[in-house]
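Case study 2.
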Amino acid sequence: MTKKLTLPIVVVAGVMSLSGCQIMPTFFNPTAPVPGTYPSSDAASSKAVADIGWNDYFQNPELREAISTALNNNRDLKTAVLQIEEARALYGIQRADQLPTINATSGLGTSRQLLAGTMRETTAYQVGVGLAAFELDFFGRIKNLSAAALSQYLATEEARRAVHISLVGEVAKAWLIERALAEQMTLAQRTLKGREASRDLVKKRLDAGITNAMEFQQSESLVYSAQVVLLGLRRQHALAVNALTLLTGTSIKLPTQTATLSTQVITADISAGLPSELLERRPDIRAAEQRLRATQANIAAARAAFFPRISLTSGFGLASNDLGGLFDGGARTWIFSPQLTLPIFDNGRNKAAMSLAEVRSNLAITSYEKTIQVAFREVSDALSARATLAEEITAQEAFRNAQAARLTLAKARYENGISNYLDVLDAERELFNAEQALVQSQLLRLTNAVDLYRSLGGGLTEPEK
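Prediction:
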């Protein structure tokens, strides 16, 4: 009896000795390759992005509706959600490999043998439950593969959040661009009507012999110039509407004409914090970190492939030569078959797999560092622009007002015969350009506020239902 138990005792002892030999990865994050502070940080700002939801940051109801529509219909966001479901399913499959699979089995076997000139046919029936080739994960290969799958799943979840943030920002910018073009169209239409009225006045003066044909041609050229600008703006506006439709996933009601850029309220006074805080705020950085963790787990799994694999096949059931007696008087059967596989010569397969895992890990490190650097630059650019855009708009408004005063004075001088019509034409051109430039400056200020909010990781909070 003691001799029969020797082999199982040896197997158990071997299992116990190997149970502490799992190869687990040492997770590490590279040092962020960016300075400790932003070059244009504003210490006076007090509002943290984490405390501002997009429904609070963007206060125009029509813009909020456009963002909400996009979050419900945008195909890129739906694709990101489906990729999460895919990664979750793959993680579930990989995790299942850590646990044994019990199967119910049944079988029928028929054999014929020629013995002493007589053909004998034997039939055997069998039912039972069994464990098929379950790998005992002493070295952590399966566990590390499961950890890699989990990290990939978490990375897809973070990628969905990144798409969410990007979508909120892109919809806001597309909406603001549409508003800017609509406002510029209004200015162009008003300018065109003014130039047409001015041309008609010059035509009357020409017919009365008060002016010459040159002044009429100059006034008419300004009319055509305004028409060209207006047609170009209409084309750009149509493209902006198409872009907004693509982002929202459906046709939306365009904002009213009263929703000009000067009436938009967007919270621009937000705290940038420190670059190190981006590691927690930005989901694209967290996604890169999870992908890095997955590659590190794959290195450990590849390293474990150099060690022995122990698999276990076992089963218990009933067997009988007679179907009717299978459950009544059938003989009990069982099988216990552990198997040890030790790689000796595989043509360098395991070594190549190990090298591949290490290269992919190095690529993931580079990608992680690059993601941090891009995020740092986005925030720095937005902060640098924020520092001067308010002053630029103030200067642009003063310039527009000066050009308007100049046009009024030029018209008065022309009507009194003090100056020629060329001064009026030049003043009209300069005023129109100043008005268009002011709209562009206002657009830059608002889109900069959107970029700063997005680059700091804002845009995840949903409106309260």
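The longest strand covers residues 118-136.
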